[in-house]
Each structure stands twice: as structure tokens, then as C-alpha cells.
């Protein structure tokens, strides 16, 4: 096993935490903007995404403090397109989930072979983000 680069790990986890907290705001906003006949299940989907983003941010923060780091109080920038039809919201969601997936993959490269716990944590998050990408792609098929 290699030594864990704690400083880089904390930096990446803080970026993830800020991004996940932005996801809470993003998905909450989306849930408020959905209209139309399919509103209820899509609103429920976005609310669930917001809750999961908060959980992911909290988990990252717990690891940061466990590594004797200081969790950020910032959130990542949130782009507002002012386009709120369901197709646009889902496309933006897919983009957000892909960015999250990329961030977790970057973290995996840093913790790989240095910490079994952090490796497993990160692999689990990668799996969840990949699943979200698949789900959103399936939701977008109705709009093709």
C-alpha cells in the first residue's frame, strides 16, 4: 500500500462536498419548477436527488473531519439557465451527475491503494453516480 496523500484527499473531498451541496440547491429548485401532467413523479425524483446530495455532502464532511481537515462552508457555482421544461431540467441533471462522477473518479485515483475504506467509499459513490446517469438517460428517452 502507498501512503495516503491526506492534503489532496481533503481538497478533493471538499470539492465534492461543495458540489453535492450545490446539488441540494439545484435539485430543490428543479423540484419547484416542474409543471405538467407528469409533475408528481418528477418532483419526487428531484426531491430524492436533493436528499441524496445532502447525504453525500455530509458523508464527505465526516471523512474530512476524520482526516483532521476542515469542511468547506461554500457551495459550488450553480448555473441558472432559466429553462425549466422537464427535458431541460433532466439534461442539466445528467450534466451535473456526470461532473459528480468525474469528481469521484478523480478521488479514486488519489486514494487507490492507500486506504481500503476510502477506496470502497469512493467506489460506492461512483456506482451510485453511474446508476443516476443511467436513470436520467432512461427518463430522457421519452423526449427523443
Could you walk me through the main structural features you see in this protein, from its secondary elements to its overall organization?
The chain has 144 residues and is mostly helical. It has a single domain, classed as Up-down Bundle (Ferritin), CATH 1.20.1260. Helix content is 75%, strand content 0%. It has 4 helices and no strands. It has helices spanning 6-33, 39-66, 86-111, 116-141. Helix 1 (6-33) packs antiparallel against helix 2 (39-66). The longest helix has 28 residues, at 6-33. The chain is elongated, with a radius of gyration of 16 Å. The mean pLDDT is 96.
Question: What order do the helices and strands come in, and which of them pair?
Answer:
Elements: H1 6-33, H2 39-66, H3 86-111, H4 116-141
Helix pairs in contact: 1-2, 1-3, 3-4
